[in-house]
């Protein structure tokens, strides 16, 4: 039958939406590497699940439990979604225990390495259970993210030093919890942390952003969030035995020359050092070339009268450039808020 010309044009202009692939991970289920829908480990699902058609996603639903495995989302596995099926992110935990010394370097220590673009995760914990840092090298990455247009919603990131390596691409973290001690959000991604809890577990530095050139569009924006601190992040004997909190911490220090971090509309605690920001080391050139700025923060740590002289207080017009939809838009006009809304 011959189609009317207008209908033919419509079919050509608006193709059918690509179908998602749905698979499940359950250590106690019937899965195997030969299955198309059921697997017993997360890596098994990533390695063997069918490919989604262009525009579609591979959605991996993960049963509650503790998954003691190192997970790698390879570059040729874009559009992966991991969803924990527990009542909270703490019910589904991906954890390993490598640190820089045992793994052969900080960048080899990650529990989860994410290289495929358009990665998404919801209701999961990314954790590294390596012992606390020692002079031998205690950096222990929970998640290393090199994914453009990545979304993390209702997730937890737990370690001590170098918890979250937000290293490349545009990344959006919503309603999430990130805990660590020193430089625990680091790298050179273009990342926004929105309605998150950033939790300091000992005196240190929240961020160590690594922009290398002032023309790069990279940087970290922490907005509509809360910074908290305590010596404990979970109810464990070794945590309860730690000494009470003493000292102060900083919002960040420049891992690379043109580091850029902005805190906006965020509640800051009294234990924040009044200077707010630190140099990397005392022998660095002064003033630093880093761009560290704040706008309309609240809480007892938000007073700016003693802030580092080289930091900035933004005007409303300047702050508008760091709103999530603006800062993460890119040339393809990506909308991270709309993308996050699609997750459960």
Q: What would your notes on this structure say?
A:
The strands form 2 sheets. Strands 2-1-3-6-9-12-15-17-19-22-23-24 form a 12-stranded parallel sheet. Strands 4, 5, 7, 8, 10, 11, 13, 14, 16, 18, 20 and 21 form a 12-stranded parallel sheet that branches. The protein has 2 domains: 19-168, Pectate Lyase C-like; 193-233 and 250-332, Pectate Lyase C-like (3 Solenoid). With 344 residues, it is mostly beta strands. The protein is 11% helix and 33% strand. The chain contains 7 helices and 24 strands.
Question: What keyword list fits this structure?
Answer:
mainly beta; 344 residues; twelve-stranded parallel sheet; Pectate Lyase C-like
Give the topology.
Elements: H1 5-13, E1 21-25, E2 38-39, H2 42-48, E3 58-62, E4 65-68, E5 71-73, E6 80-84, E7 92-96, H3 100-103, E8 112-114, E9 120-122, E10 125-128, E11 143-146, E12 150-153, E13 156-158, E14 164-168, E15 170-174, E16 177-187, E17 190-194, E18 197-209, E19 219-223, E20 226-229, H4 237-240, E21 250-252, E22 260-264, E23 291-295, E24 312-313, H5 316-320, H6 324-327, H7 336-341
Parallel strand pairs: 1-2, 1-3, 3-6, 4-7, 5-8, 6-9, 7-10, 8-11, 9-12, 10-13, 11-14, 12-15, 13-16, 14-16, 15-17, 16-18, 17-19, 18-20, 18-21, 19-22, 22-23, 23-24
